[in-house]
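Session log. Operator J.P. requested a structure for one protein chain; no other inputs attached. Running the standard single-chain path with token output.
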Amino acid sequence: MSSPADPVKREPSWKRRITTAEINGRRVNEAIERGDGNSGPLVLVCECGHLGCNSMVELEISEYEQVRANFDRFLVIPGHEIEAVDRVVERHSEYLVVIKPDEGARVAAREADERTP
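Structure written below.
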């Protein structure tokens, strides 16, 4: 259970909302990857924090696995990064990889990551 001292609770509500949207996008992509059943490219959703974003990007499974190398990495379409909550760590022609530099967002991303023990 979270306490008021919890770093997630200390984040402004708009930052929590953006982080939650990004986490939900990642959950969708994790489900797409699990259910794909083939070795070809995946059509994945942008994991940005913009509500209503329905942008898609096609990546090889190995490319998505590189994005998911750590709990705080998210796949976003160029131009969808949000400077207040994201830091771009990789640039590719069709997508960016962003991380969560703020402690509260990092904690939320870690707690929501099914791959983090």
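Operator note: Residues 7-112 form one domain.
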